[in-house]
Amino acid sequence: MVLKTIYLDNAATTPVAEDVLNEMLPYFKEHYGNPSSIYSVAQASRAAVEAARGKVAAALGCEPAEVFFTAGGSESDNWIIKGVAHKLAPSGKKHLITTAFEHHAVLHSMASLEKEGFEVTYLPVDADGLVTAEQVRAALRPDTALVSIMYANNEIGTIEPIAEIGEVCHAAGVFFHTDAVQAVGAVEIDVKAQHIDALSLSGHKFNGPKGIGAAYIKKGVRLPNLIDGGGQEGGRRAGTENVAGIVGLGKAIEIATADIPHKAAKLTEMRDYVIKTLCAALPYVKLNGHPTKRLPGNVNLSFEGIEGEGMLLLLDAKGICASSGSACTSGSLDPSHVLLAIGLPHAVAHGSLRLTFGVQNTMEEAKAACEALETIIPRLRAMSPMWEDIEKGRVPAHLPVH
Ligand SMILES: *Cc1c(COP(=O)(O)O)cnc(C)c1O
């Protein structure tokens, strides 16, 4: 029997939608012209790039001239954060505000600026992963150059009060950036109404291709060039455009934002089914992230007494792709900075599992994942010395039974 893959790691990346791929293919074949060339073969490429820019702008509620194509979310984050910091430093503004649980593209950009002499305030988040506009207001200083707060967290799914934070920043005249990589296509975004000055997004998180993203940067703000060279992207990011990627991004964002309420309802149903089922079926389980202010497709649970890696391996043996709360990418076994930021003890953070649903998933897959975990968790606990200590009453559990 061939094992059918159940892909529940859509926060890591998503499959390219069929319609997106079909829209891209001609730009590898007949429409291969360089958008900067003058002849008509090239003009199809130029027109396609500009049409895609229009689609991104429509999805965000901004003008096409405020959209710059980049190589993805990390590149947009780096450009905006370092760009704003470097632009405002000569005027004496060398203070930046962010949260402790941002994506590493933001945190490591901040760390690199700290080495250059910038000062960064890392706001704590509460147990649900929320940061408030009031916290931001209290942290603002006369020398604050930038506030960068993610729209929605990639691990625990918590959605931040972005419009309120934006309002506080604008009242103080401070530039506001949000990493919206997880939010685009999941929630309605309107950068003008939400007082957002700059935003990062990435194609591969909403069924577009990898290696293409965009930065929205409010007009009137000219950041230092990201790449010097030709005149592409208004001269700010030189280099011949990734035309097929840009076309794919445009199509993907058009589809992803076409009917968000309907899509979100379907994802929320799967999400809540899994949370409810597993919390009822297994003892010592905790939901991480805010119960309602969370991404429609995000499930993040901690299971006391076991290690995330064990869950991932046994799930993989059943064809189920998921993600754990340990930063295995770094080769270290430290629990994720996000789970520590919401106050989880190391032992509980280690037993965390993230399942993220996408538009291609079905309720049958959600049920299969629950069935798998209902056997995997007791099996792992039966082999775990940590769990034995808890069961025998030698060590108290960190989590309540239910
Ligand atoms: C995936 C992700 C990124 C990085 O995007 P890439 O396109 O992979 O560079 C940045 N921020 C968040 C919140 C993400 O989920």
Low-confidence parts lasting 5 or more residues at pLDDT below 50? none
Give the neighbour order of strands across the main sheet. Answer: 2-8-7-6-5-3-4
Biggest sheet: strands, sense, closure? 7 strands, mixed
As an assembly, this protein is single chain
Q: What separation lies between the terminal Cα atoms?
A: 37 Å
Helix/strand-derived class? alpha/beta
Give the overall shape, derived from the CA principal axes: globular
Instruction: Give the helix level as a range of percent.
Output: 25-40%
How would you sum up this structure in a few lines?
The protein has 13 helices and 13 strands. The chain is of the alpha/beta class and 402 residues long.
Notable features of this structure?
402 residues; alpha/beta; seven-stranded mixed beta sheet; four-stranded antiparallel beta sheet; 13 helices; 13 strands; globular; binds pyridoxal-5'-phosphate
Helices and strands, with pairings:
Blueprint: E1 6-7, H1 18-24, H2 40-60, E2 67-70, H3 73-88, E3 95-99, H4 104-115, E4 119-123, H5 133-139, E5 144-148, H6 162-171, E6 175-179, E7 198-202, E8 213-217, H7 243-256, H8 260-281, E9 285-287, E10 298-303, H9 308-317, E11 320-321, E12 323-324, H10 337-341, H11 346-350, E13 352-356, H12 363-382, H13 385-391
Parallel strand pairs: 1-11, 3-4, 3-5, 5-6, 6-7
Antiparallel strand pairs: 2-8, 7-8, 9-10, 10-13, 12-13
Helix pairs in contact: 1-7, 2-7, 3-4, 5-6, 8-12, 9-12
The structure holds pyridoxal-5'-phosphate (PLP).
Pyridoxal-5'-phosphate (PLP) binds at residues 72-74, 103, 105, 150, 154, 179, 181-182, 202, 205, 213.
